[in-house]
Design goal:
- The chain is an alpha+beta fold and 137 residues long.
- A hairpin with a 2-residue loop joins strand 1 and strand 2.
- The termini are far apart.
- It folds into two domains: 46 residues, no CATH class; 74 residues, Orthogonal Bundle (434 Repressor (Amino-terminal Domain)).
- Helices cover 32% and strands 13% of the residues.
- The relative contact order is 0.13.
């Protein structure tokens, strides 16, 4: 299967060129090279980050919920690492406004985002549902 240009979709007959367009590293045909800034070689394409998640054996995934204090935990961990909201957002590939909304409790992270934040910030944002029920409000 021949490579296709990631901009126009045409088949690439010769070696693909790597260009940066709006911060994205794209493989393009010779006609689309002029649309971006040339990058060097295939090594310029970043490798995807793979994160392996494990769940504590005491609880099943459905028993876990986001800690009600998630906003404070995230903000304190981010500040402890000396990161701005923008830097944390870039590091985990979300907009800085998402980090801001989480820290001001305007948004509750889903389980996937919570696990990414846990991994990057080295904190725990998940608690068992039974622990939440037993805590006084």
């Amino acid at each position: 299967m021949p490579l296709t240009c990631e901009v126009c979709g045409d088949p690439i007959e010769t070696a693909p060129s790597h260009v940066e367009i709006d911060g994205a590293d794209l493989r393009v045909c010779q006609n689309c090279v002029k649309l971006g800034k040339p990058l060097s070689g295939p090594e310029s394409r970043p490798r995807p980050v793979r994160i392996r998640f494990t769940v504590n054996n005491r609880f099943s995934e459905s028993d876990l919920e986001i800690d009600p204090e998630f906003n404070l935990i995230v903000r304190q961990a981010r500040e402890k690492l000396g990161l701005t909201q923008e830097a944390l957002g870039r590091a985990i590939n979300v907009k800085p406004s998402v980090i801001s909304h989480i820290e001001t409790k305007k948004m509750k992270p889903d389980l996937i985002l919570a696990r990414i934040l846990m991994h990057y910030l080295k904190v725990n944002l998940l608690v068992s549902g039974s622990d939440l029920e037993s805590t006084p409000a």
